């Protein structure tokens, strides 16, 4: 297994991003889950959800390439802007009153719809910033895909709920400025409300 490096020993470049820290936490939690033999069957929806993520990643990368090509062409023409066409998945619309069956039906309805297309105009003066935003989205999605693949047969929730003292997680989050919501789902935030005032200097 990959060795998990403690944050204090990692290079600043390795831990400067929130996604990197969350990935580090999940890898450490994975080690606990493996030690405790917390395995799970591969979810039936895994392949479908991975395909959607990979399709979205390809779309972002295609958008990056198009932006660079369009910007290059605009500079040749001495234009101050360019336009690109983007495609995005239609997002399901949920309401608080929906039952589980209704939410699933909404997901299926949206999944059958074609991607939304829209035109976007970008000023050359804002090109670098626009590219940086899409590049960050690519990095975030790559991290999500990597984590999803790495953790697909490990039940992380069991160790977080029943085996790990939540004060360890909360102290770690505070020490590294990671929002606790990135680690604990809303149900766990309520369950562990008693531990939320834990200091970052807590030692188990």
UniProtKB/TrEMBL annotation:
UniProt xrefs under Gene3D superfamilies: 1.10.132.10
PROSITE patterns: TOPO_IB_1, TOPO_IB_2
Superkingdom of source: Eukaryota
Gene Ontology cellular-component annotations: chromosome; nucleolus
Pfam families per the UniProt record, alphabetical: Topo_C_assoc, Topoisom_I
Catalysed reaction equations from the record: ATP-independent breakage of single-stranded DNA, followed by passage and rejoining
Keyword DNA-binding recorded: yes
Similarity remark: Belongs to the type IB topoisomerase family.
Protein name as it appears in the record: DNA topoisomerase I eukaryotic-type domain-containing protein
